[in-house]
Each structure stands twice: as structure tokens, then as C-alpha cells.
Amino acid sequence: MTSLPPTANPQSSKRLLQTTCPYCGVGCGVDVVRQGAAGPQLSDLQGSREHPANFGRLCIKGTHLLETLGQDSRLLFPMVNGQRSDWQTAIQTVADKMRSILETDGPEAIAIYGSGQLLTEDYYVANKLMKGFIGSANIDTNSRLCMSSAVVAHKRAFGEDIVPCDYEDLEHTDLLVLVGSNAAWTHPVLFQRIERAKLQNPDMKVVVVDPRQTDSCTLADLHLPLAPGTDAVLYCGLLNYLSQHDGLDNAYIEQSVSGLEEAMHIASEWDLARVADVCKLPQSIVETFFRWFTQLPRVISFFSMGINQSTTGVDKGNAIINCHLASGKIAKTGSGPFSITGQPNAMGGREVGGLSTMLAAHMDIDNTEHQRIVRDFWQAPNLATKNGLKAVDTFQAAADGKIKCLWIMATNPVASMPNRELIEAALSRCEMVIVSDTAAQTDTLKFADVVFPATGWSEKNGTVTNSERRISRQRGLVPPSSEAKHDWQIISEVACALGFDEAFSYQHPVEIFREHCALTGTENGGSRALDLSPLQDLTEQQYDAMRPQQWPFSEVHRAGADRLFADGTFYTPTGKARMIAVTPALPTQATSADYPYVLNTGRVRDQWHTMTRTGNTARLLKHMDRPWLSVNSADAKTLGVENGDLLALNAACATDTTVILPVTIDDKQRKGDMFAPFHWSATWGSHCKVGALLNGANDPLSGQPELKHGAVKAKKADMASYGLVYGNAEYVGPVRESFSYWLACPTEVAHSASVADVKAPQAVLDSVFELLPKDTQWATRQSADAVSVVATRDDKLVLAVLISANALNLPSDWLDSLFTETALSAEQVSALLNQQPDDAFLLGKLVCSCFGVRENTIKQAIQDGCNSVEALGKNLKCGTNCGSCKTELAALLTAEAESSTDTESTPYERII
Ligand SMILES: Nc1nc2c(c(=O)[nH]1)N[C@H]1C(S)=C(S)[C@@H](COP(=O)(O)OP(=O)(O)OC[C@H]3O[C@@H](n4cnc5c(=O)[nH]c(N)nc54)[C@H](O)[C@@H]3O)O[C@H]1N2
Ligand SMILES: Nc1nc2c(c(=O)[nH]1)N[C@H]1C(S)=C(S)[C@@H](COP(=O)(O)OP(=O)(O)OC[C@H]3O[C@@H](n4cnc5c(=O)[nH]c(N)nc54)[C@H](O)[C@@H]3O)O[C@H]1N2
Ligand code: SF4
Ligand SMILES: [Mo]
């Protein structure tokens, strides 16, 4: 149905195709070469030079996209009740169930839980089906966990959910504040643009506001490691400081802003000393930041999950926006509050109205005029006229038996929602759980009654909108895998089976795109900034050839220019932007004597969310091959743990779940705070259910859960054996699961699991022996505190089980080199049995994945005189391909420089 772009000679010709990266909200353009027509091959993936988001750059995740496309990990056919099925049966099963629930319980008993990773066309059709035809607004998405606080903050301040900055602004600012964002890892290509901008303009200042000293701090002139959850205090203090230091733009306020007085009333209570006290920061640091914000003419606040994922995330967003409005640092080149979107199409989802608290096309669900416009446009028989359930409430309602049919699309909520025990109970209770996914194995699929295989990146065809409102094409480069169908097709087929054929007879995504664009323009007349009507008549050919387009389009934007709000008017009833009176509040999941540690969760550089794609390539696991828990050294001492020890975490909401993670002692982490990545899930290990430790507390205005502030207790895990199960997948799988604790850490060539057990090594051996492959030769070594088993077939390693009473840290490269040997020597077998790698493998952790350069090699080069990232690149090539490790190289340079000087630098302030 989705036609491939035509080729001159389909049999043999090579053709350069352009698409968009499916990961983060930067929205980088990607060039790929396709060769051959039947079973076309993709190769030579690069950043598109002419794409305005990335100008040729890609981060490491984008660079390795082609390696994630293997069919082994894909869902390839529909399933019903755990059995392979066919499309007709699967679609009919869903439609029958929905119809019967509609008859007995009404539309409120059905819900869709979607994703900012759906394309705009998929999203539009899902929203239309739910809100216009099934007749409830119970369609929410993972964007609720991601952007919803910013959405509400925008609505409150501007009257419409609008991001008023462009990427180019990052290159024309005097002060860039990264607040609650680790862009070096999460928006790497933008971070590289910022890096360049700072090189071009050394006067440009960068401030990072984050309780942790992240990699993003490598670029910072100032880092504010504030107490977690205290950002609203900081920004109230800034507003107060602005008013006391001649920082208000009175003319702008007079013309364009309301609510100053009320906001000021609360903010005036926050003087410097009080801010410093509550944020637990030295006053001088806070003052420096406030002074820069006040005095530098152009300022951008680049904010992300450290702000949004909070029970007061909306207020925090508004506290930031307040300062921009009051100082007039908004809607001008190089100035503004810049909420940065996480997912590739979180913005497109907001445009179609894909949240339970919106209608469609930036129109409001409770506005009768908007209802009329949408009802007429869709010819909707059953338009929803009130808010539906937000994500957390949807799952609660399912757990309570009120939602009976839940369709999950392009998201893995069992792993990514907070309060996992409740989510599992909810899905178990639901009468029908439908899951549309691309991956064959996810934590959520285990709960599905009906499984729809969806096409994934490289097969899908449609549009996405990035953080700067730029619409780009994701193109179908190859045909769908096996029986997979496009999400919009699957939704349309269910809609047709429900009897809504006329409204869902789409044959090509362009038809959906045109309809979406037309709706944004319907009865708009300048009342809504989102007006894509200039694109509503695109032909299929024009759609296929569409270049990246940023809205607003000057031909329909009421200000006539593409700079939003440049005329000083906003989309509120008065036309003025609103400052909001913000009363700072502390996090809801407060620590206590029983749960004394703050659990902060977030992302790592090379993994995407629940790892269903990035986890498929060992290249992306090289940077960090396992989850960990960052612990301050003082806390580590109190807890009696050292690097690599296993720490067990519990939270009040997780009655049956213990999370166990290896400790990384890290003083970039505040005392009392701990940080864990949330990527690894039950698919990856026995004790990785990090989401279970967060209780689902959420912002009453946005419904966005507090994912950066859990309250946990920690205790060294009581284990008597530690070790490694390594070798062929078929053997590693069953053996690892016989241990009380296992964690998959696959390498480029083999399967591997880090394991631990409450039993002593000798006792462990008994249970392992039963599982050893019978047709292999075994060599064993047993001592008082260690056991090793090495299984070989024709002298080739197939399985090694290496267990010790003490923590065992064996470099995976060493095992990989043995695994790829055609025949192991007696010495090699003996080294394995002795659990002792040779020196050559002890060169430290991999920093540059592209060129395989390790930490100790880099440290040596620095000691030998390489004193810049460029010099390291010249000597070792590290950082010269995708550039993702450049921040780490810079950090190594700084660390080496610091360790070689006697002067003490303050932990907070580093003026470059
Ligand atoms: N590599 C990678 N990149 C990604 C993603 C991915 O999975 N992997 N996902 C994408 C998505 S969907 C999103 S939403 C973005 C998220 O992008 P980011 O928001 O940059 O990522 P996070 O790591 O979730 O959180 C950012 C920072 O918030 C800090 N933080 C915690 N509590 C507080 C606080 O109280 N105040 C402040 N100021 N900061 C705090 C954390 O320490 C963390 O460093 O990343 C996108 N990009
Ligand atoms: N503790 C903690 N939890 C968090 C966060 C945090 O910082 N801390 N961050 C939150 C945020 S911001 C986000 S955005 C969420 C992300 O959480 P999720 O959305 O649950 O994470 P993903 O792994 O991206 O899930 C996407 C799923 O869709 C599938 N998929 C990929 N492409 C397609 C497609 O085209 N069609 C279909 N049908 N399926 C597809 C993938 O295989 C995968 O199973 O996690 C949230 N959860
Ligand atoms: S920064 Fe990386 S993950 Fe984000 S869109 Fe660009 S290449 Fe993809
Ligand atoms: Mo996100």
C-alpha cells in the first residue's frame, strides 16, 4: 500500500533516500542508500547535510540505526491468545470485543494508550477513532510521562501549546541555561550545535541546573547542583532578583503580559539567602546565575525532564516562563523558554490532539465551538466532549475494572510507567489487552490478548514534527517485514470492522496528512497558531518529495512572520501572555526515616528507552553494558558498599519488588540522592524493574508522574556467590535463570549474564550441572570460594560458568576473544577456569565505540601530551566519527588536568 519511492532501474540501481531518525526530538535528517528491488538492502547511512536540524551530524544512536533492523527480534505476524493468527481473525476479535463492551459498558470502558513515537498520520487516525467514533477521550500516550507538564505550562502562559524557539536561537544566545536536561546524552546533536556556538562565541555562557554533575556540565561555565525538586524556588528567586535589579522589561509587560503582580507577590518572598538555603547551594553561585540572566541580553532556558517529571512540573515550567516574560526575553532571536521534546513525534502528537485532555489540531475538548468544528469536519457520530483519563488514571481505572479493553500502541508501559505492580495488575484484570508493537519481546507483550505486528522505522511512511516545530518525512525505504502493517492501517481496519468505513477508508498516508492539515486550518482565521492548511492539497508526489517544513507558515500566520509571538500578542482571550503565581512545593514522594534516599531516574547516552531497538546491537551496549546505581561516596560508606557491589532497593509502593543494581560510587551525585537509568527491564534481568520503585504520584494539572524523585531504602544485597554465565544463547538463557539474580549483558559475539546467588559457589554448582549441554566436554575447577565450568565442543567454547564468593569483574572482550577462537588452547581453558584475564585486556572501559578506543589508552595519551579533544582525535581517532564521546573525552581531559594540579577547585563553579 505504501509505495516505495520510484527507482530508475529497480533491479540494480543504487538510490540515495532521505528519511528522519526515529529516536529523539531533535529530528535529524538521515540519508540512506538503497540497493535492489526485491529484498532491498540499506547501507551507507549518514546525517543529511541539508536537514536544518542536524546539517549532516548524527549521534551514536542514529549512526547505528541499520544495525537495529534485524528480523530476529521483530514481531512478524498477528497473535490471538498467545497463538499465531491471521489479520482478519485478529482484527475481527478486537472489533467484536469492542462492540460488545460498547453495548454493555459504553465508550468510557475502552482506552488507547499510544506514543510519541507514532507518526502524525498514525496518531491522527487513532485520535479520530477514539474521540470521534468510539466516543470517549480515553486516548492518552506516553507523552503524558514526558511533555504534558510543558504542554499545560504553555497553555497557561501563551493560551496555546507553543514552543516559541528555534534551534538557530541556540546559536545566537548569550546565556543558555540547561535546566533538568542532560542534552549531551539525550539531545546530542543539539548539544554539538551548542558546543560549536560556544566555540564561535566564547563570551556565550552555559549554565547547567541539575542535582547531578552530568556530562552536559563539560560545557558549563556554572553548574547549580540544586537539591532535587527545588527548581521553582530557584526561578521564583530569579523573578524577585529581576525586579530588584532593574531586570524587568516594563514596556513589554505593559503591552504583552498579565499577572505580574500576583506572581511577584509570592516571588518577593524568595530572596537570595532563602533560595540558597532551600536549594542547598552556595549563595555566590545562585547570585552569579541570577546576575547573568538579568544582565545578558539574550537568554534561553532549555528545559526537559528534570522540570516536567514532577508533581509540580507545570508550575516549574511556568516559573521559568515567568522570568522570560517579565524580562522580555522571549520571542526574540536567541531568547525564550525552550521546552525540548523527547520523542521523535511528541510534537506531532500534540498537533493532532493525541492526549486525553485535548480535542484535535490544538482545539479544546471543553470548548463548544471547537467541538462543533471537529464534529462537522469528521462527520463524527459520537464526539467526546469531556476530558478522558490521563495515563496514570487509565491504568488505575483498568485495575479497578472500569477500563475493560486497552489498546497499547508503540509504547511499553509495563517497563516505563511508574508503579509497575499496579500496571501489571491492571493489565491482568483488563478483559482485552491489545498491543501493537514492532518487537517480539517486551515486558508489556506478556499481557497481550491480541498482538498486532506494526511496521517499524525504514518501513513506515509518514511525518514527524521535531522540537522546533519542523515537520519531516519518515519514508518507507523497504517493504514491511513479513506480515507487519502500518499503525494507521491497523487502526483503520479496526475502525472499518466497527462499521466506520466511510471515515476510515484511507489508502495512503498522504490522505490522512491532507485531512489533518485541512482540520488545522478549518475556521482558524488566525485564532490558532497551528495552521498547516498550506499543505492540505499536497499530491502524493509532493508529499513523497516534501522537504522539512517549519510552522508557522508565513502565508497563514497572523503576524506574517515565522517568529511566533513577535508581534507581542498571544493566544489568550486578552492577547496578553499570562504570568502565573507559583508557590514552590517539595516533591510528593518524600524521603523518611524508613526510605531515606532520593531515587532519581533517567537516560544513558547510547540506549533508547526500554531498549527494544538499541538493545539489539552490541555496539550500543559497549558504552554501558548494564544498569547501575550512582551512589555518593559518603552514602556508599554508610551502606558498606564498594564499586560493583550489588545494592538492593525497596520502596513503599513496591510490596513484592526488590530492585538490585551494581553500585557506581560517584561524587557527581549529591549525598542522599541515587541515580539509576530506567532503560533495563524484566526482559533484561531478574531485578531491573526500576519503575516499580516510583509510586505514580503525578502533577494534578498535567497528570505527569514524578519520575525523578522516588523515596527508597537501600541495603547491600545478601549474596554468597557472584559470577558470569557466558556463551551460546541457547545455554546461557536457562543457566542464568537458575540464579537468584541475573542480568543480561550481551556482547558483540555472545550471550552473557552477570549472576549472583544467595547460595555459596559449591551449592550453586549442583543446580548448574543439570543444565549443562550434554553433548559437550566439561572442564571444571573447584576451590573453597570459587567454581568454574567450561563447556567446549570440538575445543570451541560454548559455555562458561564462572562463580566466585567475591565480586568477579571479567572484561567481556577477553571472553569474546576466547569465544571467537576456533580452538581453545589448554592455557586458555585454564585461564578461564582460574577466572584470570591476561593483562592485554585490562585497558579500561570503552569510550569511543566507533574506533574502539579505551579509557586507559586515552589517559595515557593525555599524560603523553594530548591536551585537547582534537589532539586525542588526531592521535587515536576517538571522537572523529559520530562525536558522541567528545563530552567524555573532555571530561577525561578535565579529570586528568585536575588530578595533576594541586590547587583545589570548588565542586560547584568552574569558569572556563
Ligand atoms: N540517549 C537517549 N536520548 C534520549 C532518550 C533516550 O531514551 N536515550 N529519550 C528521549 C526522551 S523521550 C526524552 S523525554 C528526553 C529526556 O531528556 P532529559 O530530560 O535530558 O533526560 P533525563 O536523563 O531523563 O533527565 C535529565 C536530567 O534531569 C535531572 N534532574 C533530576 N531531578 C531534577 C531536579 O529536581 N531539577 C533539575 N533541574 N534536574 C533534575 C537528572 O539528574 C537528569 O540529568 O531524552 C530523549 N533523548
Ligand atoms: N523511571 C522513569 N520512567 C520513565 C522515564 C524516566 O525518565 N524515568 N521517562 C518517561 C518518558 S519521558 C518516556 S517518553 C517513556 C518512554 O517509554 P516507552 O514509550 O514505553 O519506551 P519505548 O521503549 O520507546 O517503547 C516504544 C515501544 O514501541 C515499539 N515500537 C517502535 N516503533 C514502533 C512503531 O512504529 N509502531 C509500533 N506500534 N510500535 C513501535 C518498541 O518496540 C517499544 O516496545 O518512558 C517514561 N518512563
Ligand atoms: S540526536 Fe541522535 S537520536 Fe536524536 S534525532 Fe539526531 S541522530 Fe537521532
Ligand atoms: Mo520522553
From TrEMBL:
Q: What CDD domains does the database record attribute to this sequence?
A: MopB_CT_Nitrate-R-NapA-like, MopB_Nitrate-R-NapA-like
Q: Name one GO biological process term.
A: nitrate assimilation
Q: Which UniProt keywords apply?
A: 4Fe-4S, Iron, Iron-sulfur, Metal-binding, Molybdenum, Nitrate assimilation, Oxidoreductase
Q: Does the entry feature the keyword Oxidoreductase, yes or no? A: yes
Q: Which cofactor does it need?
A: [4Fe-4S] cluster; Mo-bis(molybdopterin guanine dinucleotide)
Q: Which stretches make up the 4Fe-4S Mo/W bis-MGD-type domain? A: 14-73
UniProt record similarity statement? Belongs to the prokaryotic molybdopterin-containing oxidoreductase family. NasA/NapA/NarB subfamily.
Q: What is this protein called?
A: Assimilatory nitrate reductase catalytic subunit
